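Fold this: Glutathione peroxidase
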Amino acid sequence: MSIYNIDVRTIEGTDTTLEDYEGKVLLIVNTASACGLTPHYAGLQQLYEDYGDQGLVVLGFPCNQFAGQEPGTEEEIKSFCELNYQVTFPLFGKIDVKGDNIHPLYAYLLEHTPAPYQNGDIEWNFAKFLVDREGHVVKRFGSRTEPSSLESDIKQLL
């Protein structure tokens, strides 16, 4: 199985896979709209604007598992992101990123993160996974890691 075969649902409710992103550098992030780290959306959008034409795609996966900080519907989440952070990168339907109902994408990311970047369960909103053009998980960054600090790692993969 590859990361590109995993079933996901877009924020608009369409079932799909990540196959459309094959050959791209991916930054996969579990997001939340009511978190102290929500301003990371601005930095993620900036990375997408700065490096999207070179092959970077930011993928946002809303999650309500951390202090109920993503309580809205997909429609509300999409509207919030567009209005407050001008998000144009792809957003997906709400998922679980840990526990009994962990989404297969996050199970894959956790299982395939190389040492020394394996840190156990997702600890909070805005954990970030960097995936190379071949679909290999390269690094995992903690929730508090500012998106701008990922630039050098992203440039190496582009």
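The mean pLDDT is 96. Strands lie at 7-9, 15-17, 25-31, 56-62, 128-131, 137-141.
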